[in-house]
Design brief:
Length: about 240
């Protein structure tokens, strides 16, 4: 017995070209350095849902296949879980477990929203697709654990998060991908300026933030320009700075 599911991608995704690019990129893995309210979470909600919904070549059913959303702590995972519940319609087609933070689709695929605060607990499962949310605030051990779960399935991954300084594994990985050193990865950057241009963030809100936040905090949160060190110096890329 086969279940036919009709799915229409939200039109706003197609209009936001930079967001659509990382959802649809052809490489198995992608890292997205994105600022606050630039659309990274919404984009990955769409990506994970579409992966869970799509067919797996050679398999008649997706029963027992897992797709993970992993965040640094459970409180952040719950935010994504609630947003995914709001995103998918009609709700009666899906089975929700609010205790396990899981959503089972009619095709048997299961999206699970997990915490990375105990990386050892992430080993063992075979996972077909994963999102690492707020990765710059996550332990590298958690990234390694999730990556291991994708090995047997050749699963795909999207890594998203704010830029948070330069002394962390997420920043170092992003530089390798951006430099083209990892062929199976793609690099993307979304800033608040991109979100304004796409119409998902209003310019006056961005201007208000800039007027009252310390410059370094503003640039890191809204333009993905990191602190070089604790002495209040910053990494300014000329191409980015000229648009600020």
């Amino acid at each position: 017995m086969h279940t036919t599911i009709e799915y229409t991608r939200p039109e706003i995704i197609n209009k936001y070209k930079k967001q659509k690019a990382f959802i649809d990129c052809k490489t198995p893995h992608a890292i997205i350095e994105a600022t606050s309210k630039a659309g990274k979470t919404v984009g990955c909600i769409v990506w994970l849902f579409e992966k869970a919904l799509a067919d797996i070549p050679g398999r008649e059913s997706k029963e027992g296949t897992y797709y993970w959303w992993v965040a640094p702590v459970s409180a952040v995972s719950k935010i994504a879980f609630r947003r995914m519940k709001r995103f998918i319609q009609p709700k009666e087609m899906f089975t929700y477990n609010d205790t396990e933070l899981s959503i089972t689709l009619p095709n048997g695929a299961c999206m699970v929203f997990k915490s990375a605060d105990h990386p050892d607990s992430l080993y063992g499962e075979d996972v077909y697709g994963a999102v690492l949310d707020e990765a710059s605030r996550m332990k590298e051990d958690a990234y390694i654990a999730v990556d291991s779960t994708l090995t047997a399935t050749e699963g795909e991954m999207r890594i998203i998060g704010n830029v948070k300084g330069t002394a962390n594994w997420n920043y170092e990985l992003a530089r390798k991908v951006e430099a083209g050193l990892l062929p199976s990865w793609s690099y993307f950057k979304l800033t608040a300026g991109d979100a304004v241009e796409a119409g998902v963030l209003k310019q006056h809100i961005l201007d208000e933030k800039r007027s009252r936040l310390p410059e370094g905090v503003f640039l890191e949160l809204y333009y993905a320009i990191p602190f070089v060190n604790s002495s209040n110096k910053f990494c300014f890329a000329f191409e980015e700075k000229k648009h600020i």
